[in-house]
Amino acid sequence: MDTLKIATFNINGIRSRLPALLEWLEREAPDVACLQELKAPDTAFPIDAIQAAGYGAIWQGQPSWNGVAILAKRAEPLEIRRGLPGMEDDSHSRYLEAAVQGVIVASLYLPNGNPQPGPKFDYKLAWFERLIAHAAGLLESGHPVVLAGDFNVVPTDEDIYNPRSWLKDALLQPESRACYQRLLAQGWTDAIRARYPDERIYTFWDYFRQHWEKNSGLRIDHLLLSPDLAPRLRDAGVDRWVRGQPHASDHAPTWITLERSL
User: Fold this and answer.
1) Where along the sequence does the record put site: Important for catalytic activity (predicted)?
2) How far is residue 15's CA from residue 226's CA, in Å, rounded to a whole number?
3) Which of 116, 202, 150 lies closest to 37 in space, CA to CA?
4) What is the DSSP string of 34-80?
5) Which of 44, 124, 132, 261 has a 20 to 30 Å separation from 65 between CA atoms?
6) For residue range 140-170, what is the model confidence (pLDDT) as tens digits?
7) Residue ranges for the binding site for Mg(2+)?
């Protein structure tokens, strides 16, 4: 079966974790890789090393914070847009969209929103509203679309090791979860949950209190499929081994495989 593998990975600093990224690309060989939290200006993006690994790339950097990229194996992503409509004045680099291998792929890094309540949480919800509006337009276009990235939302209590210690966190607030559910209600399929409806799957383990060693994780990295892609989903998973490496990101790459055509 000819499949297309699309992954999302919050790298949490591409300059310091470039060796880990290159090792992952070589070992897992995704056809498309969406990266978040580059934490580097455009000029510091390691395009030479990524091209040497066999990938074309587009990216939108930002010094010290945020930053998103889309990598394509043996191909050049065709950029569609950077930034969400209606947020042209937003200084944060959080959204990048491209056509790759016949699919529209978006790499997104939704605002964290902490502390809440406050302006950062208000920004999170405003950004989410713009994403919901843009996602509706993508569905109306009729093109196959994957929304991939760090959504900074724990969809349900089944997506976290213990919600009690996170009750005040922006990732679990009712408003954050309601936005995510509104997005799904447009017709998107949460690929990991579709593949594993009853299992606890985590994509993020923070650096505190031995949360990685204890598997005290959260699921906040998601790949959402447009209705025409959902029947083509063949597998999904999390490359947990990456999180166990020395000096790892606090996220692990999350991926799907799609049948290229039915």
Assistant:
1) 221
2) 33
3) 150
4) EEE---S-GGG--HHHHHHTTEEEEEE--SSS--EEEEEETS--EEE
5) 132
6) 999 999 999 999 999 999 999 998 989 999 9
7) 10, 37, 150, 152, 250-251
Q: Which amino acids are annotated catalytic?
A: 109, 150, 251
Asked if 100 contacts 75 with a C-beta cutoff of 8 angstroms, the reply is: yes
- How far is residue 193's CA from residue 179's CA, in Å, rounded to a whole number? 17
Read off the pTM.
0.97
Hey, CA dihedral for 151, 155, 161, 163, is it positive or negative? Answer: positive
**What does the block give as tokens for 88?**
């042209």
Residue type at position 47: I
Which DSSP helix (H) or strand (E) runs through 222?
Answer: strand 221-225
Q: For the domain with range 3-259, which CATH number is right: 2.70.50.60, 3.60.10.10, 2.60.40.10, 2.60.40.2250?
A: 3.60.10.10
Nearest Cα residue to 76 out of 106, 53, 99, 49: 99
Residues 6+ apart with CB under 8 A from 157: 163
